[in-house]
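#lab-general

N.A. 3:47 PM
ok so I finally got the sequence cleaned up, no stray characters, all 172 residues accounted for. can someone with queue access submit it? mine expired

B.Y. 3:52 PM
send it over

N.A. 3:53 PM
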Amino acid sequence: VLNNLSPYLVERGELAEAQRLLEQAIEHQSVALRSNERHPVYRLFLANHYRSLAGVFVRQGDHAKAARTAGEAPRLYPKKWEESVRAAEYLAGCVPLAEKDAALPEDRRRSQARAYGDQAVARLREAIDQGCPNIARTAKASDFDPLRSRADFQELISGMRQRKPEAVKQSP
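B.Y. 4:20 PM
back already:
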């Protein structure tokens, strides 16, 4: 319920309250998951709460918290490429936030933005390794615009385009 209320608060611009509710949701769902680590719904809901909170941090401009939170859902689902792609989306969103962060000196802004970009590309590589069927199509989303000028991102996408699909095994 706490998680489900947060989009309404986000829509109204009440980001601090959305953050508070999502942090409560994470706390409660973490307790539930600890009571039964194999419960698929507890795990699913907790991952969803982390994704929602990462989105709120991006909207608040808090790139450090967004980047930390972005890695939580993939930790819960280490073999799901979709979680790696989502984490990469949030990390890509952190790039322009770090570049504009007036609280950081200019050289630190650049290095932090570069680090977020590195992490985002690494998450996309991870998604490929986990079986993402078409990273080039996935990476067309506007969420990845902050990475488009990066050589490693371009190489990753072009490398996937050049990959030959594996031969489909025929049944005898």
